[in-house]
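Structure (tokenized):
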């Protein structure tokens, strides 16, 4: 079993930046692909960003390209989401996810999920 814990969420003004972290614990061996999703009130959970185990391959939703970056620190079992130029429409609960798939997953089919961290962008 793998446990994922997100942190770094909070309230920020439009145009500001925020860095989310997701720490993995438990039986993390064999867990390779990681990603970030978000869900706003009244909306379905949507893909934000994903990264392969080595970090050589990444993918981003069109709505965040050029503003968000995803990175990993395998030594610390942690994945990060750097969010810049935040907009009110970025307001959502952000979830990290992990899977044993050796590649980049952009779908909602990850095996492990965190509890989420709230990001609120005010105007």
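Design, position by position:
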């Amino acid at each position: 079993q793998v446990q994922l814990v997100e942190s770094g969420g909070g309230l920020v003004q439009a145009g500001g930046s925020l860095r989310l972290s997701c720490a993995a614990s438990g039986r993390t061996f064999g867990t390779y692909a990681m990603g970030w999703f978000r869900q706003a009130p009244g909306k379905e959970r949507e893909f934000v960003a994903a990264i392969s185990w080595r970090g050589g391959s990444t993918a981003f939703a069109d709505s965040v390209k050029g503003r968000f970056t995803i990175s990993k620190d395998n030594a610390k079992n942690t994945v990060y989401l750097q969010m810049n130029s935040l907009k009110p429409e970025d307001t959502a609960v952000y979830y990290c996810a992990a899977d044993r798939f050796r590649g980049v997953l952009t779908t909602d089919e990850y095996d492990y999920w965190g509890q989420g961290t709230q990001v609120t962008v005010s105007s």
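Reviewer-requested clarification: The mean pLDDT is 94. The radius of gyration is 13 Å.
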